[in-house]
Amino acid sequence: MLDWLWVIPALPLAGFVLLVGLRGLPRPVIALIGVGSVGASAALALLAAVRYLSAAGPVVPIRQVLWTWLPLTSFHPTIGLHLDPLSLLMMVVVTFVAFWIHLYSTGYMACDGGYGRFFAYMNLFVGAMLVLVLADNLLLLYLGWEGVGLCSYLLIGFWYTDPANGRAAMKAFIVTRVGDAALAVGLLLLYWHFGTLDIQSIALQAPHVWVSGSGLAIAAAALLLGGAVGKSAQLPLQTWLPDAMAGPTPVSALIHAATMVTAGVYLIARMNAIFELALPVGQVVAVIGAVTLLLAACSALTQTDIKRILAYSTISQIGYMFLALGVGAYSAAMFHFMTHAFFKSLLFLAAGAIILGMHHEQNIFKMGGLWRRMPLTFVTFLAGALSLAALPFVTAGFYSKDLILYETLASQRGSPVLWACGLVGAVLTALYTFRLVFVVFFGPARREPQRGGSARGTAALGCGSFQAQKPEPPAPTHISWTMTLPLVVLAVFAIVAGAVELPKNVYQVTLLSDWLGVVLPAAPQREHLPSLAKVQIIAGAASLAGIVAAWLLYRRFPSAVRVLRLVRPWRQVYRLWQGGWGFDWLYRRLVVEPFVYLARANRRDFIDLFYGAIGESAKLLHAVLSWGQTGKVGWYAACLVIGAIVLITILVLT
Amino acid sequence: MMTRDLLALGPMLITAGGAVVLLLALAVCRSHAFASAWSVLVLAAALAAIPMTWPGAPASGDLLNLLAIDSWALAFWGIIFGSALVVCLLGFEYFRPLAVQAEEFYVLVLLSATGAAVLAAADHFATVFLGLELLSVSLFALAAYRRDQAISIEAGIKYLVLAGTSSALLLFGLALLYFHTASLRLSGLAGPLLAGHPDTIALYAGIALVLVAMGFKLGLAPMHVWTPDVYQGSPAPVSALVGSVSKAGAMAFMVRLAGVTLTGTPGVRNGVFYGLLVLAIASMFTGNLLALRQPNIKRLLAYSSIAHMGYCLLAVLPMAAGAALDRQAVFYYMLAHAVSILGAFGCVCAASENGREAQHVEDYRGLAWRRPVLAGVFSLMLLSLAGIPLTAGFLGKFYVLASGVRNALWLPAVCLVINSGIGLFYYLRVLGTLYQREEAESPDQFATSTAPSALLQPSPQLLLTHLTLAALVVLLIYFGLMPALASLPM
Amino acid sequence: MALALAAEGPIWPLGVYFVLVVVLAAGILAFSYVLGQRHRQQATDVPYESGMTPTGGARLRFPVDFYLVAMFFVIFDLESVFLFVWAVAVRELGWAGYVEVLIFMAVLLAALAYLWRSGALDWRASGSKPAPDKERGQ
Q1: pLDDT at C4
Q2: Do A136 and A250 share a domain, yes or no?
Q3: Residue of B nearest to A620 (CA)
Q4: Could you say which DSSP state residue C47 is in?
Q5: pLDDT at residue number A402
């Protein structure tokens, strides 16, 4: 069954190889390879899902070992794929969202000079992400993990002519590397104790090898958590994600919203056997999630750049997923991952359409009244925004977020405090989301879309010959079908995707938790369960309250905000939030500056002298030995005799 | 009995017969294309005959005790005939534009492959000498094949004189061994070594002299001095042949010899062990240090192969344990080295034109901007030689290192690691040169027809060379990813 | 055997012997340096010290054909050696030996045919030989 599973990650990778190997292809061919490979991969993933889920009998994981790399006696790193409901969900969502984003990119990047390069990197990303998701062992997972990190770096710095983009890319790479280092140490620890990196056998052995709550289990879980925190931009390694918005918007949608940043969530869910043995770490995960979602939501409230708002929102939403993971509600986290992938990529793509329409203007306060000029973008953006704000009973976001909030109360590991954090976060989410909607789409048009376009706009939009044919950049309304179709499709999914898992009191649909229940344990429930309806009403009221507050503040009484911003303590808070709670400042003081100082102070250190001496002595020895290469046959024959004498001496005397 | 022996000898008979037939054909009518096609055909047939023979004759007794056609020999025949095949493919387009009679080249390649095959299967001192001489005599002529160039003749003469010297030492060594054991069988050595005979000076001196001769062929320090001159002077396909076929044959015999002589008193390391240890460490350092600042690509590859043979000896050292894993490590290393060195010299062939070889590192400056695919292939080959993962060279080095670590040979293992670091320097130096832009060249004008760049223009006449290189790249990656051949029973 | 015996005895006589050899050699050299006569005349540094200066180089060039013929002699002479060996044991070796010798002869004949066709047996003054090589004229 499903022998062709390997084709799914292989297709985007083949697309990458083709796009890199064949330079100078015409744009339609590039688009065909780039989109086609991911599209075929998505189709196959869907087919695999249908085949897998329609198979008779109990759901059994499929393991496909392609080959064994380095067959040694004690270490068998296999190149193998593992398909179970968890990886199936990830695979389907990743390929599905990636396909629409690729399609969108053909329109978005149409005028860009690095068209082929863009699709090559994007295909590599999808391939690496699928390797990460489908890996049957942690080594291969790590390969995919680093692969997506590399693609993230390459794509954040895609417009490398601007040094700021390069710096953002490096920041993302270095900050996540802190987490990756922890993950690598974690893998070594696991290998040390289990003698294997195979995920399934670790999960099987873990309860026998480690006692629940033992120090080693906690250490392993904490190290894995370190990797997850870095990749998923959670506290304290969240600082790179807002800067990562320097990349093209489809990149933000695919990598920095829908897929890569949720790899940390996937890692924790995948390694749940370890985390189940380390409950204190689970508590930490929940606290990290709760704090991160609040901090990021506050920051999102004060940003003016549309993409940065969405970036902070992503951090906040992944905070929800971490909260769910922390309280043991793994399938709730995966549910929120799925709905979030739909609505957040939709929001980014719609934001991309707005940015393109505004000629690369990203400040929301220079937009306004766009709903008339971009009705389709408005409708789809609204769908995404409603889902993000979790409008009760209509949107997918409501069902997933409600499930998380409910589980936070219902789980033994949850607590009312965590729940309250989530609830406040829900209010804030609705508030900043609709702040965005009201400012961008309503109110007076603050600025007409420019005709000429800024310098940055031309750099990104037009390039040489392409611009010569089209002297005017596309007007806001002229957006090709390749960009609108993904918006519509994703909007539909942002609304209806919640139907796979409904609250029990609404309708008995628990498809997702049934599937995922095979691999993910359910959260241990409290004895006295809170009333489902009550929790739902409170959560719904919270999101509605946020929307109403946004309407009051940014639509009805806009002057109130301006006044508020002038009040003394609030102004400082505003600046603090806008700067992302000063983490960048803190890290600069705590890490960057001491490190740079040390590097300066240590510029001519004696350790370098040691390595320099090795080099110099190698050079010297090279000179000595070269002197022996005289080219004279007599000397060469003498060398033979010397060899004979040396060997005879050694052999006879020992 | 007879038919089974013939079947076991099949691959070797095919190459030997093919050489004679080719010689006769040349007497009737000369044709470069025919000679090339015939030799390729013969070698392909020999390669195809190997699986039919697998896993070799059960006992060597039927072949007059002369040859041991076991799975070890057959595996190395695979390397030898495959490498010779690649050399023939590279040679066709290399010699075509030259004003040299090229037909005999193929006869000599077939003969040298036969010689190396005999050496790889040798179980008797007579066949050792026969195989070695057949290989060497063919190589003298091949090294001096470009008679229009003084340096090629110089390479041939040097090789002739030095190989003659080494053969003399070998004969002396064999005579000493015969004097001591009264047997010409290789396995006859094991008894006296085990018996703890009081007077073993002649025995050990004989073994030492055989080691010198094999060390000469493998280019182990301090018998390495000839390698750079011969590699540099020989035509590039011949350098590839010396680097692959000759080394594979000698290494196959070296392992056989080590397998017999290292099994002295169990648990006690005898002089042969320390001799090989010194050879291994000296070769690693000598090869890598000499290559450090070498500006000539062919000499650099020669030095690199000295170091590589030193690395490979690390897996020969524990041969006393007789573990199949160590033999597999040696086999895989030689396989990976053959693919990489053939590819590297293939790139030299492809970069050369009109009879002038692109030997100097400077000839390759900016190759990536003129012929990106060729530069990519060359980079891959260099990376494989440097032992970077995902290439065959990495796995080869990995197995050898694993073999050393498993047998607690810490000193040579550490030396290997240090030397991999030193080695990286000069491979990366060449790699960097490939990707540097030429100073006098503006980025938009790639196709300037000035001296060095005109040399490296892509040419349609090199189709076969390019196809061969493509096949080698596929093999390199395949062996780097799927080490299925490493688990052949040996 | 001698070495084995030596290994059993004391090692110091060898050292004494070594020292004596060195002393003797050094002594002879030193005495001849001190006692020997010296003269410095016109023809001292000339070969043979006789005043007759040699003409021409010591290296003479022979036609390469001499070497070729010598080599052919060696190669084809071996043929007869093997044939003699085979002839002695012809009955014991039987038909299998006969076939092997036939193969051996066939290979040699092939080599002969090749040499003949490629002009190696043409005994003419070099230069008037038909050029087998394209570059021979250079």
Answers
A1: 47
A2: yes
A3: B289
A4: G
A5: 85
pLDDT tens digit string along C34-65? 988 888 877 777 777 776 677 777 788 777 77
The two tokens of residue B92 are 């066709």
Q: What is the ipTM metric for this complex? A: 0.89
Q: Which residues of C touch B27 (CB under 8 A)?
A: 110, 113-114, 116-118
Residue C92: HSE in the Cβ half-sphere, 13 Å Cα cutoff: 5
Q: Do A654 and B270 touch (CB under 8 A)?
A: yes
Is the pLDDT reported for residue A562 higher than 90?
no
Which of chain B's residues have a Cβ under 8 Å away from the Cβ of A613?
A: none
Number of domains in chain A: 2
A615 with A544, same domain: the answer is no
Closest chain A residue to B482, measured at CA: A69
Q: Mark yes or no for CB contact B148/C135 under 8 Å.
A: yes
Q: Best residue in A648, A649, A653, A654 to probe B by mutation, most B CBs within 10 Å?
A: A648
Q: Are B21 and B49 in contact (CB under 8 A)?
A: no
Give the model confidence (pLDDT) of A493-546 as tens digits. Answer: 888 887 777 776 666 667 777 777 777 787 777 777 777 788 888 888 888 888
Contact in structure between A48 and A482 (CB atoms under 8 Å): no
| Residue range B417-456, pLDDT digits in tens | 989 988 888 999 999 888 887 665 444 444 433 444 444 4
Domain membership of residue A562 (yes or no) is no
Torsion of CA B218, B221, B224, B225, to 10 degrees: 180
Residues A533 and A618 in one domain: no
Domain assignment of residue A144, given as a range:
3-462+477-556
Q: Does some domain include residue A469?
A: no
- The answer as to whether C83 is a domain residue is yes
- Boundary-marking domain end, from A540, A556, A572: A556
Residue C34 inside a domain? The answer is no
Strand locations in B380-471 (E): none
Total number of domains in chain B: 1
Please judge whether A648 and B208 are an interchain contact, meaning their C-beta atoms are less than 8 angstroms apart. Answer: yes
How many Cβ atoms sit within 10 Å of the Cβ of residue A488? 16
Find out whether A313 and A594 touch, Cβ atoms under 8 Å: no
* Number of domains making up chain C: 1
Question: Residue C69's domain spans which residues?
Answer: 64-117
CATH number at residue C112: 1.20.58.1610
Question: Which residues 146-185 of B are in CB contact (within 8 Å) with C?
Answer: 147-148
Residues of B in contact with C111 (CB under 8 A): 23
Q: How many CB pairs under 8 A join B and C?
A: 39
What's the pLDDT tens digit per position in A83-96? Answer: 888 888 889 999 99
Give the β-pairing of A78-83 and A62-68. antiparallel
Chain C contact for B20 (CB, 8 A cutoff): yes
